[in-house]
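User: I'm preparing a small set of examples for a lab meeting where we compare how different chains pack in three dimensions. I only have the primary sequence for this one, and I'd like the structure in token form so I can line it up with the others. Please keep the answer compact; I'll paste it straight into my notes.
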Amino acid sequence: MLPALALLATLLPLALAQYGDSGSSPTSTKSSSPAVSSGDPGVHIVEVGNGGTKFTPDTLNVIVGEHVEFRFSPQNHSVVQSSFEEPCVPKDQGVFSGFQPVQSGVGTQGWTLRINDTSSIWLYCSQGKHCQNGMSMVINPIPNKNNIAAYKLASANTTSSSPAIIQGGRLGPLSGSSPSSSSSSSASTPTGAGVRGVALGDAGRFILAIGVLAAASML
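Assistant: Understood. Below is the structure token output for the 219-residue chain.
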């Protein structure tokens, strides 16, 4: 009997260690983050139509490789590129966000433009007479040459139009937010699965202990 008990004392801890708890904590996976993340110093935010027919700010200096994210407010605005010489008139191959209707607050979709060179980019809203009323801005103006005040003055007696094709930027969730169909937070295995794993692990150890006892009693 004593040899059997000694064998039991040796086998039982080893068996429990080998077939330990199978109900470990649920694993977590990270979903992909937005193309432009909040807090990125390379992202410049421009409010479109917040507080009236205006871009805020209306002048930006942006380094090559950085992004400008346009956030839209009511009612329905756009971002169109023109030249300084022809305000409120679309530039050939220029950028166009399309019209972005918003009922209240700030729209959930932003339009992000990547800056690829240091050329001046003159932009306006092509909705109604918004451009004629001063809704325009510039990215990387040339110092001591053209400025947004001169552009707005020249646009007062023009007629606005919109390009036929949306191009030049990316429409998507605001930086720092994710689509409603997915989340940037960790996604875990369902709790029920984890609980079942723990139960099976305890049962397995109990059955294993009984088997070891039975084997020892036969020695």
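A couple of notes for your slides: DSSP finds three helices and 13 strands in the chain. The longest strand covers residues 43-48.

User: Perfect, thanks.
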